[in-house]
């Protein structure tokens, strides 16, 4: 039961009850209607802090995120199957109902990445690419046209479907590779990537997410960039939240971006620490490089600015001190 009197929380709890009682989360009129209502409820900017909700609502939120993840996977599989029936699938991506959102999100991520990256990355990893790897496809087609993309997913069928979408394209079929493996089993290969993208639904609860981030901190190359997707306000009922002050051990957070339009995910960009020049002899340098110890840093004053005024969004630049 919902223990909050807030109208938004009450509405989310009502929708959760209806969604959790569905026989199937495969795309259908009822499924589409309920998830559309849920998204429309959570999109408007809200001051709500989900971490402060009571235990009953916390459990509902955790269950709801998993339901959203399952429904999203089924929706992507459904449309990947349809697209795979075309001779040239990439010419028909706009049949996916949220394709325009991916165009906007990928453009935002590219712009933010460009602010902190002095050159075009030669090799990128995308963790949790799924059966419809739209982020990789859009970035490779529109923004990073010379970059190679290694896509990681634990699901063999998802990778097979994704490969089928790009196999007929002479350019992307050479630059996009799909690996069926758990990212926790990928170690030395992670040092090959200048940028690693972590999908929002890879690690759907806090402990899973932190375990994966710590693994990336251990094996990514020093100075490499990590792009993560988070959620803010009521949107945190749809996706897991990454706390840039506490969750990114071994990384320097560069900026956090909270969209206020139909792009749901917040964007966090961070850089893996290189070994510090000076450190206490009591701190093992290997542990620091592995992300086992978070270098002393603090979330300082948040300075709001917005180079994307036309998108009506808000950027928070988080300044971090790297002093020991």
UniProtKB/TrEMBL annotation:
The keyword rRNA processing does not apply. Signal peptide: none annotated. It catalyses: 3 S-adenosyl-L-methionine = nicotianamine + 3 S-methyl-5'-thioadenosine + 3 H(+). It is an enzyme of class 2 (transferase). Keywords: S-adenosyl-L-methionine, Transferase. InterPro entries: Nicotian_synth, SAM-dependent_MTases_sf. Its EC number is 2.5.1.43. The keyword Transferase applies. One of its GO terms (biological process) is nicotianamine biosynthetic process. Belongs to the nicotianamine synthase (NAS)-like family. Synthesizes nicotianamine, a polyamine which serves as a sensor for the physiological iron status within the plant, and/or might be involved in the transport of iron. This is Nicotianamine synthase.
């Amino acid at each position: 039961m919902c223990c909050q009197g807030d109208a938004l929380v009450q509405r989310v709890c009502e929708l959760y009850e209806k969604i959790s009682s569905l026989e199937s989360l495969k795309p259908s009129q009822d499924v589409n209607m309920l998830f559309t209502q849920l998204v429309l409820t959570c999109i408007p900017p809200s001051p709500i802090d989900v971490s402060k909700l009571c235990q009953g609502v916390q459990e509902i939120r955790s269950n709801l995120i998993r339901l959203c993840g399952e429904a999203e996977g089924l929706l992507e599989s459904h449309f990947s199957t349809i697209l795979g029936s075309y001779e040239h699938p990439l010419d028909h991506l706009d049949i996916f109902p949220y394709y325009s959102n991916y165009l906007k999100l990928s453009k935002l991520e590219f712009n933010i990445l460009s602010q902190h990256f002095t050159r075009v990355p030669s090799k990128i990893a995308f963790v949790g690419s799924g059966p419809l790897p739209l982020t990789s496809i859009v970035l490779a087609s529109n923004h990073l046209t010379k970059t190679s993309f290694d896509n990681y997913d634990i699901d063999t069928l998802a990778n097979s479907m994704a490969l089928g979408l790009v196999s007929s394209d002479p350019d992307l079929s050479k630059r996009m590779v799909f690996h069926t493996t758990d990212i926790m089993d990928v170690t030395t290969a992670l040092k090959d990537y200048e940028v690693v993208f972590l999908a929002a639904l890879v690690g759907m609860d806090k402990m899973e997410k932190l375990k994966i981030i710590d693994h990336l901190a251990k094996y990514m190359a020093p100075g490499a960039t990590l792009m993560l997707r988070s959620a803010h306000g009521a949107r945190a009922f749809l996706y897991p939240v990454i706390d840039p002050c506490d969750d990114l051990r071994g990384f320097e957070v560069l900026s956090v971006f909270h969209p206020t339009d139909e792009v749901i995910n917040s964007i966090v960009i961070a850089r893996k620490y290189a070994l510090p020049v000076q450190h206490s002899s009591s701190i093992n340098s290997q542990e620091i490089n592995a992300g086992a110890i978070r270098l002393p840093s603090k979330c300082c004053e948040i300075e709001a600015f917005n180079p994307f005024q036309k998108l009506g969004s808000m950027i928070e630049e988080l300044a971090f001190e790297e002093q020991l």
